[in-house]
Amino acid sequence: MNLLVDIGNTRIKWAIRQGTHTLHTAACLHTELAMLPAQIAPWPISKVVACNVAGPELAQALAAAVQPLTVQWLIPGRERCGIHNSYTEPARLGADRWAALIGARQQREGDLLVVMAGTALTVDALTTEGVFLGGTISPGLQLMRKSLAQGTAELGLPPGQATEFPCNTGDAIFNGALVALAGAIEHMAARLARFRGHEVSCLISGGDAAVITPWLGIAASHVCHIDNLVLEGLAVVANEEISL
Ligand SMILES: Nc1ncnc2c1ncn2[C@@H]1O[C@H](COP(=O)(O)OP(=O)(O)O)[C@@H](O)[C@H]1O
Ligand SMILES: CC(C)(COP(=O)(O)O)[C@@H](O)C(=O)NCCC(=O)O
Ligand SMILES: [K+]
Question: Which of 16, 22, 32, 61 is buried most, with the most CB atoms less than 10 Å from its CB?
Fold first, then answer.
């Protein structure tokens, strides 16, 4: 039985899997990691595979939480699970992006845009041959709202919701962020489609995926919302025969 853990900048997502079968999934804030040992205690876990982009303190906290098991950390390299990493320095790629690319390939064939809408928005291009061509990093929905609040005198952080023609400050900010995120995704979809000479599919995951998806100017048949692509990728890694 495998425990898979994705430590993002806002939340920790985790799953317990037996082969391809998911037995349990959950998410918690960084401050709630202390609850993990009690939550995983009922399961006979033999392997822990994780990725972390939230700094060494959280890595240490997870290592302590799963003792006596040791965490196998996913470190991006040049090749893994059929994916080629084109980053100039492969290890500089976010481990969550690397896991999402591996998960995406297992979910779907063809040329893909792999989108993670979390604290940051990442939009990564993956070819049918398994080459990660590169991708973009933008501030995510909440970071965009917070940056406006920090850099202006009058905006603050009023609540907002998705609407076509915003008529209050909160909605104006929320939808400004939403169209920026949608635009970043659409732009990369068009760029990859132009490069490959045909339409591409877009796999989208992360905490804000459901908010963004309805506003994407991409045919619905080319967009697929996947619950947690990072954990899917970690499951592939955990099931690999060669040790990490
Ligand atoms: N229960 C929740 N707690 C925190 N953020 C949430 C929750 N549900 C949705 N979100 C949204 O998801 C975003 C975080 O997404 P997530 O994929 O967990 O990010 P990360 O991997 O960077 O930690 C937040 O910015 C927020 O807008
Ligand atoms: C881009 C990210 C901040 C996204 O983090 P997240 O929103 O998932 O918390 C993370 O993948 C990261 O720190 N990447 C390292 C730099 C890079 O991928 O180029
Ligand atoms: K993430």
Answer: 16
Identify which of 138, 103, 127, 137 has the alpha carbon closest to the alpha carbon of residue 200. 127
Domains, the chain, ordered by start: 2-73 (3.30.420.40), 84-233 (3.30.420.40)
92-125, pLDDT tens digit by residue? 999 999 999 999 999 999 999 999 999 999 999 9
Model pTM score: 0.97
Which of ligand 1's atoms lies nearest the C-alpha of 140?
25
Atom of ligand 2 at shortest distance to CA of 230? Answer: 8
Mutate to test the pocket of ligand 2, among 74, 89, 96 (most ligand atoms within 8 A of CB): 96
